[in-house]
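I hope you will forgive my troubling you with a question about protein structure. The record follows directly beneath this note:
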Amino acid sequence: EDAGAARVSARRAPPPSRSCLCRAEESATARALIRRYAWGVVGHLNGVKNSDPLREAHAAMQPKVIAATTKLAQSRPVYDAVAALEKGADATALDGAQRRIVEAAERSMRLGGVALDGDAKARFNAIKLELAELSTTFSNHVLDATKVCTYYYEY
């Protein structure tokens, strides 16, 4: 992890509170939503106005997007804060929707490889990147097939 994450995990901070974590999450979520929205626009454009230059740009950026989202999903300090909130004293203050959001965030990070270290983490990340590349290749093949397919019908 980067130096900032190491400093956060090395600090002896009080247990995360709902309001503290929500403010941090709002900021991180806002940035993530902007990235996700921008990447979603690229994906949509790739589907409706596919071209070789767009495919090349998509292929060049996809590993960077995967790396950025994976880094957040595998952040141990963020996971520890979410897990502490889920099981801590503030958990009783969460309403049903908030509790489901915290549970979903914890589960998503756990399934995203936050508990992995070393070779297992590297292998998980390599598989995640390969899956994204295979998905893009498949989508490109489908788009290519629809470009050459013509269906004639009579009224």
In short: The chain is about 75% helix and 0% strand.
